[in-house]
Each structure stands twice: as structure tokens, then as C-alpha cells.
Amino acid sequence: MEIVIITLGCLGAWLLFAGPIYQAAIELSEQTDVREQFEVVSKAIPQPARVSPWWWLLPPAAYIIHQRREKEYQKRVMSSFTDQQRAEVLGFMSKATGWIIVAAGAFLIALKETWELTQLLDWSFAVFAAITVVAGVLSVLHTVLRMRLTGRVAAYTTDAPHADAARPDAATTDQ
After folding, report:
1. How far, in Å, CA of 49 to CA of 174, rounded?
2. Which of 15, 20, 25, 42 meets the CB 3.0–4.6 Å disulfide criterion with 103?
3. pTM score > 0.90 for this model?
4. 160 burial level (CB within 10 Å; 0-12, 13-18, 19+)
5. What transmembrane ranges does the database entry give (predicted)?
């Protein structure tokens, strides 16, 4: 019975990892206007110059120069937005960060549960690594496939000229 419980715990942990990834994709895809605005503005503002390769001989100095240039670029991008747009972009970024944190925590729990399962069954580290890779890929693949399906279904409903005419019960509603 212990094997069953630990196996179910492992499966549940991987579902906890897959869930936030999927939910993040749903919520963030609903904010396409925010992403489009951000892309337009960020492309209109010139990117900061690259740090000279010579500076990388002194990595701390190169890092500081790079960070300063990036901060200046971010200030220029954010200052080009209206207050409303800035609030929307910050909301988008906060939502994305929140889902990343939730997914990371779930991933760590999934690692722990997978480790416990492989230890109980006396499997090698290679099996642990294989399970982790397969479960992680399946979690992301689930989100990708569901989002594609959602996009196709949405395209069917918006492209249909007379969506009500295609319904079998539409002809009988006039009675």
C-alpha cells in the first residue's frame, strides 16, 4: 500500500506542476493587447549597445556596465507608456512572475516525490532523471497542445459566418 500512496503522491505533484503552467498560459494569452503594446514600444526604442568583449576580462565591471545599460533601456521603455499602459504591463509582469513562482514550487515538490518513489523502489539516479525529464516534458506539452486546440476552436467560432445555422437545433427554434 505504501508504494501506491507514494506513486499517487508523485503523480499528484507532477499535476501540481502542470496546472500552474497551463493556468499561466491561459491567463497570459488573454492579455495579447498588453504584449503587443509592449513589443511595439520596445522595438521603437533602440536597444542598448553591447558591452565590449574586452570588459569581460573584468567580469564584475562588465556585469555592472551591462546592468546599467539595461536599467536605462527599461526606464526609456516604461516612460514611453501612458499610466494606464504601464499599469497593464506591470500587472502582466506580476501575473507572470507569480505563476513562475507557483510552478517552481510545484516542480520542487514533484522532484521530492519522484525521488522518494525511486528510492522506495530502489531505482537508479538515471531512472529518477528519466522520470523527471519525461514528466516535465509532458507537463509542458500538455499546455502547448491545449493552447493550440483552444486557438483552433476559437478560430472556428469566429470564422464561421453563421454559427447558429450550423447548430442542429437552430432550425427548430422557430416553432
Report:
1. 67
2. 20
3. no
4. exposed
5. 87-111, 123-145
Q: What span, in angstroms and rounded, lies between the C-alpha atoms of 115 and 157?
A: 45
Q: Report the alpha-carbon distance of residue 127 to residue 8 in Å, rounded.
A: 18
> Rounded to an integer, what distance in angstroms lies between the CA atom of residue 85 and that of residue 33?
10
More confident position, 21 or 174: 21
The residue to which cell 516525490 is assigned: 113
The answer to whether the CB of 69 falls within 8 A of the CB of 48 is yes
Mean pLDDT, residues 104-112 taken together: 98
Contacts 24+ apart (CB under 8 A), 84-93: 85/34, 85/37, 88/31, 88/33, 88/34, 88/37, 89/34, 89/37, 89/38, 91/34, 92/28, 92/31, 92/34, 92/35, 92/38
Quick one: CA dihedral 77, 81, 83, 84, positive or negative?
A: negative
Domain ranges of the chain: 2-45+80-158
Q: Please give the average per-residue pLDDT across 13-21, as a whole number.
A: 97
64: amino acid identity, one letter: I
In whole angstroms, give the CA distance from residue 23 to residue 120: 32
The DSSP string of 61-113 is HHHHHHHHHHHHHHHHHHHTS-HHHHHHHHHHHHHHHHHHHHHHHHHHHHHHH
